[in-house]
Write a structure and sequence with these properties.
Strand order of the largest sheet: 5-6-4-3-7-8
Shape: elongated
Helix content: 55-70%
Largest sheet: 6 strands, mixed
Structural class: alpha/beta
Number of strands: 8
Length: 629
């Protein structure tokens, strides 16, 4: 967490952080004007572009931004930080930590958090596709004969975007902020020019128009929420990126630049539709003068690339958090910056996302068809975050019911309406993000449960280490010089690697350290909680190294640099021992057989723990063991 972010306007680095937040945090929500009103008045919903309907839709968009984004996320949810970090996984860990140990509700909270994270992954596939497609579709307005090039250009842009991930985003990130600031400035100017010509559109500031729209259209108005919600997609990013920029920069950017620019542009599009009710195919680009169309398409494409880049980087961060918290198998994580720990690249995730995004673009073919599928995952995550916030307000903040329930019920009602309006389009495309979410949820829950079963089986067949140490007095084995570090999930029991080493080699080292690595439910561990050490006597010690879920668990570096009781670790005299587990699925044991096989597949393709913890290969001895689940 960047400390100056919390010092408000007095901090010397606050305003650069504000610019940076504009470039990273608001890319998704900032490109929503490209398609929101276009979809609301598209043929799918059958809403006529008459003045009452235009004002009603605009009023719904405005008050959705006010209530969902500004009130819920900016004003309230950003207070629920997990040691400065935000996002649904950070919120889940915070709520679980606030509940009594082994409370039944803690399990439910975990399930909610995992499913919300799974839905976020679905959003991560659709957002790049719909954003870049909607920008490039401006070519159809500028030159209709170029329509056949929209899909190929979109695919080229997306392939280039994902290909650059391996180089990191530190350098590119420096220009993200200024470009996105220019984007919001242009949004505001385009809106102001049109509003000045048709100021009657400002009547939509009155929420009465939203109420009248619902009263007159009923079910049609409810279905139209499936398009209105496009205006608030990206709201979750404000909370998720809090750890990178802090509350004040994000709030200042939203209230001072982003929200005013968005509202002005939406109202400008509404003003254009009021004066040209027959031209609703692409009201965003209709605001642009003819001479500026191609430069605007280029700027919009840059803005959508930046929005997609921010979401891809965010997906990398969430996957890393899920790995550290034990919800996904270990995989290769490449640090692309020597200065920023958050700059990471996950090759496997990047390739999977690229293939999925290309498939989405080819399957749906246009931003209008994609908009039908969009929204389910976003609103599902929103709804879950509200439930978690409600639990947090009661168990941690201990707020009285009269302060909690009115706002909670309002948020839940709004988000339930948004979610249901999108879910009703299941057959037309909403199935896709839900299917992605269910698949991600199955992967995460199967991995978590599978690791629990493996550890339980290993413990069942193991001897407590104290019992073994005491037995050495009666039957001391041969000792050899040096230090042996035995990597084990639980240093309460004798590691299988130690048992096999003693059985086959008939020796023990002079110093034996049973090392466990624990990932805490906080972003970064405090200095006082990093090390737990216990000398068991007879040359044995129990050591636990604790890392936060945003930290790189580099074991050799920790052994060398952290304050650990006992003799210092001489790297050239230290040998690491680890067990390489061969897993076997047995019908009728543990999970359902299909989940067992899914877990085995993930285990076979996971990065070995020794590589994940940066254990040097020339100091490592691995011994095999078979575990049945």
């Amino acid at each position: 967490m960047t400390t100056p972010a919390h010092d408000g306007a007095a901090a010397p680095r606050t305003w650069p952080l504000v610019i940076g937040a504009v470039g990273v945090v608001f890319g998704d929500i900032g490109t929503s004007p490209l398609y929101t009103l276009k979809e609301a008045f598209g043929p799918h919903y059958g809403i006529d572009a008459v003045p009452a309907n235009v004002l009603g839709v605009l009023s719904l968009i405005l008050w959705s931004l006010v209530l969902v984004v500004t009130l819920k996320y900016v004003a309230i949810l950003m207070r629920a930080d997990n040691r400065g970090e935000g996002g649904i996984l950070a919120l889940t860990a915070l709520v679980q930590r606030s509940l009594p140990v082994a409370a039944p509700l803690a399990y439910t909270v975990g399930i909610l958090g995992v499913f919300g994270t799974a839905l976020f992954f679905g959003d991560g596939i659709i957002t790049p596709a719909i954003s870049v497609l909607s920008a490039v579709e401006g070519l159809e307005v500028a030159a209709p004969e170029l329509k056949r090039f929209v899909l190929p250009i979109t695919l080229v842009v997306l392939v280039a975007l994902f290909s650059m991930q391996k180089h990191g985003t530190e350098r590119v990130g420096r220009i993200f902020g200024p470009i996105t600031c220019l984007w919001f400035f242009v949004l505001a100017v385009l809106g102001i020019v049109e509003i000045a010509q048709h100021p009657a559109v400002l009547a939509a500031l009155n929420p009465v128009w939203a109420v009248r729209f619902f009263a007159e259209h009923g079910v049609v108005a409810w279905l139209a929420l499936g398009a209105i919600v496009l205006a608030v997609t990206g709201g979750e990013a404000l909370y998720a990126d809090m750890g990178h920029f802090g509350r004040f920069p994000i709030r200042a950017a939203w209230l001072g630049l982003v929200m005013p620019s968005l509202v002005l542009n939406y109202f400008g599009q509404g003003a254009f539709i009021l004066s040209h009710p027959g031209r609703v195919q692409n009201p965003f680009y209709e605001l642009v003068p003819g001479w500026a169309l191609f430069p605007m398409i280029l700027l919009a494409t840059l803005a959508t690339v930046i929005a997609s880049q921010a979401l891809i980087s965010g997906t990398f961060s969430v996957v890393r958090q899920a790995i550290q918290l034990g919800y996904l198998p270990r995989m290769q994580i490449v640090h692309t910056s020597a200065h920023s720990e958050g700059q990471i690249y996950l090759p496997w995730v990047n390739r999977a996302m690229l293939l999925a995004v290309i498939a989405v673009v080819l399957y749906f073919g246009s931003s209008s068809k994609l908009a039908i599928a969009y929204g389910v995952s976003v609103t599902g995550t929103m709804f879950i975050s509200t439930l978690l916030l409600l639990i947090l307000a009661k168990v941690r903040w201990r707020l009285p019911g009269w302060q909690v329930w009115p706002l909670a019920l309002m948020f839940l009602a709004i988000e339930a309406a948004f979610f249901s309006a999108n879910a009703i389009k299941f057959v037309e495309g909403a199935w896709f993000p839900l299917a992605l979410g269910v698949l991600a949820f199955a992967l995460m829950r199967s991995w978590r449960r599978g690791r629990e079963l493996v550890q339980a089986q290993v413990k069942k067949d193991s001897l407590r280490i104290e019992t073994f140490v005491n037995s050495l007095v009666a039957h001391p084995p041969l000792r050899v010089p040096g230090t042996a570090v035995f990597l084990t999930p639980s240093n309460q029991f004798m590691p299988p690697a130690m048992l096999h080493n003693l059985k086959h080699n008939k020796v023990l080292h002079e110093r034996n350290v049973l090392l466990s690595v624990e990932i805490l439910g906080v972003p970064r561990a405090d200095e006082a909680e990093r090390v737990v050490y216990l000398d068991l006597g007879h040359g044995f010690a129990r050591l636990t190294l604790r890392f936060g879920y945003l930290e790189d668990p580099n074991v050799p570096r920790a052994l060398k640099q952290w304050r650990i009781p006992g003799p210092a670790f001489e790297m050239m005299e230290t040998t690491y021992f680890a067990s390489r587990e061969t897993l076997v699925a047995e019908p009728g044991e543990g999970m359902a057989l299909w989940r067992d096989k899914l877990f085995l597949f993930m285990s076979r393709n996971a990065t070995p723990a020794t590589e994940f913890f940066h254990i040097p290969g020339n100091r490592l001895v691995e011994l095999g063991t078979q575990v049945a689940i």
